[in-house]
Design a protein that fits this description.
The protein is an alpha/beta fold and 271 residues long. The protein has eight helices and 15 strands. The strands form three sheets. Strands 4-1-9-10-11-12-13-14-15 form a nine-stranded mixed sheet, sandwiched between helices. Helix 3 crosses helix 4. Strand 13 and strand 14 form a beta hairpin. The chain is globular, with a radius of gyration of 18 Å.
């Protein structure tokens, strides 16, 4: 049976030197979930501008459900200026006070959240009070869903309170290694051992699972039942890394919702 996966937050245009590309972690995640055969739905807000019109056209062309996409008469569609280093790693300059900062709660969204199998959220869309309050109401309504926090820390777009309140509501935490180091410093946890760090995060925040992507070195996962798995990376030709973490999250949650074990393929157990 198809799973319903909600993804809350930013849909925006990444303004690359080569031209604009539709993105935003929640949108990327929802698209990838959809492409894997599940019902990936984006809960977002666009401006009534040219970028908003093109975004809606693009979302529809991709075969995604746009029925819960909101339109804003007063704020522009989100944009981000993106620059890439020599290895294809991005640096972001995120425009504030845009449409996805003002996502409204509706009866339809509350009903959708209550019926969802998974609810994915991050920190960027919580920088504005309107979207933050809407998110909290939807999370409260999503009592039966698995709550995936893809923490997605972006410069000047999160607060300690945002992080702690998000962790309290999460079942699964996904982060990259840089974010893991930030959380370790924030909560005064040693990260000299990644497995031990994840174990402490699991215990401190009552999480079911903790995921850390390691770039070219693969990924590490730990679960509350004591399983710890490392999956090494493999060499590919890198164009750019934008959206790679979102694709990872989508692939993981699809398997997780279907009850697949943490260790599969070439993953290695860690004691």
């Amino acid at each position: 049976m198809q799973k319903t996966v909600l993804s809350f937050g930013e849909t925006l245009w990444d303004l690359f030197p080569s031209g604009p590309a539709l993105g935003g972690a929640p949108f990327n995640f929802a698209y990838r979930v959809n492409s894997l055969g599940e019902r990936g739905m984006i809960v977002t807000r666009l401006g009534r501008d040219e970028y908003g019109r093109k975004a809606l056209e693009h979302i529809t062309a991709l075969g995604m459900d746009a029925s819960h996409l909101q339109k804003d008469d007063h704020h522009p569609t989100g944009t981000v200026k993106v620059s890439l280093d020599d290895e294809g790693n991005p640096d972001f300059s995120i425009v504030p006070e845009v449409a996805y900062d003002f996502i409204d709660v509706t009866c339809e969204l509350l009903e959708l959240a209550a019926a969802a199998d998974c609810f994915c959220f991050g920190t960027l869309a919580q920088r504005g009070s309107t979207s933050r309050l809407t998110l909290h109401r939807l999370l409260d309504a999503a009592e039966k869903s698995v709550k995936l926090l893809d923490i997605n820390l972006r410069k000047d777009c999160f607060f300690r309170e945002t992080i702690t309140e998000s962790l309290k509501k999460a079942d699964i935490l996904k982060m990259n290694l840089q974010e893991a180091h930030y959380l370790a410093e924030l909560f005064e946890i040693s990260i000299s051992s990644l497995p031990d760090f994840c174990t402490e995060m699991l215990e401190d925040w009552s999480l079911r699972c903790c995921l850390v992507t390691l770039g070219e070195h693969g990924a590490f996962a730990a679960s509350a039942d004591g399983k710890k798995v490392y999956s090494p990376g493999y060499e590919i030709r890198v164009m750019d890394t934008c959206g790679s973490g979102d694709a990872f999250s989508a692939g993981f949650i699809r398997e997780y919702l279907r009850g697949k074990p943490l260790k599969r393929g070439n993953g290695a157990d860690i004691d």
